[in-house]
Specification:
The chain is of the alpha+beta class. Helix content is about 50%, strand content about 20%. A hairpin with a 2-residue loop joins strand 1 and strand 2. It is globular, with a radius of gyration of 15 Å.
Length: about 120
C-alpha cells in the first residue's frame, strides 16, 4: 500500500466540531524514534488556543507489511480519540483539572468505543 492509499484508508476527518469549537485535524510525519530519544514520547497534540489536533506518524514508506500498516492505522485512530478527549476537556473548562491527566485521557480514549455500544 502506498502513502496516498494509507492516508485515504485512515478516514480521519479534516476537521471536527467539539462542543461548538471547530478543530482542524492534521497528520504530520515525524521521526518518532528521534522524538523518543529526546524524551518526547507523544503521538499527537491538541492545541489549547489554535484548535488544531495534530497526529504524528513515522515515515509511511517504512511500513511494508499489512500488519505494520494496520498497526499504524489503529494507532492513528487511538491518537485521534485521545486528542479529542483533550479537546473535550479544553472546551469544558476542565483542561487543567482533568485534561492534564494523561492516564485518565487515555483510559477514556480506549473505553469510550466500548461504552458507546451500550447506548
Amino acid at each position: 500500500m502506498n502513502k496516498v492509499d494509507w492516508y485515504k484508508e485512515l478516514k480521519i476527518p479534516k476537521e471536527v466540531v467539539v462542543l461548538g469549537a471547530t478543530y482542524q485535524i492534521t497528520i504530520t510525519e515525524r521521526d518518532l524514534a528521534e522524538m523518543a530519544d529526546h524524551g518526547e514520547e507523544v503521538a499527537g497534540t491538541c492545541s489549547v488556543y489554535s484548535n488544531i489536533i495534530e497526529i504524528y506518524s513515522d515515515d509511511f514508506e517504512e511500513y511494508v507489511t499489512e500488519m505494520e500498516i494496520r498497526e499504524q492505522m489503529a494507532k492513528a485512530h487511538h491518537t485521534l480519540r485521545h486528542e479529542l478527549i483533550h479537546a473535550l476537556f479544553i472546551q469544558s473548562g476542565l483542561d487543567y483539572t482533568y485534561g492534564d491527566d494523561e492516564c485518565l485521557v487515555d483510559f477514556l480514549a480506549v473505553q469510550i468505543p466500548k461504552i458507546k455500544e451500550h447506548f
